[in-house]
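Lab notebook page, bench 4
Experiment: in silico fold of construct C2
Operator: M.H.
Input chain length: 283 residues
Purpose: comparison with the prior construct
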Amino acid sequence: MEKGGQVIEAAGYHLVWGESTQARQHQFAGPPADRARELESMFANPAIDAIFCARGGYSAWRVVDQLDFDLIRQHPKIFMGYSDITNLLLAISKETGLVTFHGPMLTSFKDGPAPLSLSHLREVLSGERLSIDLAATEGVRVLRAGVGRGQLWGGNLYIVNSFLSTPRQLDSKGRILFLEDVREPYHKLETMFQQLRRSGCLDGISGLIVGEIIDIPEEAMPFGRTVDEIVLEACEGLEIPIVAGVPCGHGQTILTFPISLPVELHAADGTAQLTFLEAPVAG
């Protein structure tokens, strides 16, 4: 965390460390109520322009359930994270109407600057970057060509699944959905994608971006299908653009995606472009 902080400060930002970064309650960074109050105080503090989560993990949903969204709505600012932080990103954006940012955390820079992650983050937050050439990154694949428009929503596949049949279930109709995950076996990945389809969460989406799904555990008996095949089966009959292998999750490179921002996804053979239809940060 400290190494990541050094990278952020070297990029020209001044860090104010939250007390919860040093707190501990069992395996968590202090009681959920304490973390919620600290997050609210950061939103309310006029000296703070952006809030970067230190890391993901587990239990952000406990913090979400205790947040004062009216306070957050009255003090808009940049909020950044990914993985388990998907809980907070989606809840804050849904409850307040603010754009939140699925992107690097402090521990994302524990091994150094990660040049593409850092430069992309700065360009998105400064308004310099209004489109992303997804196909420029190695490993990106167009599974289905097409053009789709809608608000960009999503994050960690496991967390999005955990929202199903709850008051925070994602209203995905007319949206561009993006999903990523790590260390999940093939049968669980298939279960989660099929649960999204069977629940109706994929019905009516305008496009799908599948992030890097990495560190899939080896199993004694081969599963027999790839992630791409799992995705295409779950999306059977949906006439939408689908792009896979996008670095927006647990890989070495993490692109910054503005959640709830209107975007256009254009996918064709060998090309994939994500265009922001509005500036992600107000001037």
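Observations: DSSP finds nine helices and twelve strands in the chain. The chain has two domains: 2-126, 131-276.
Next step: discuss at group meeting.
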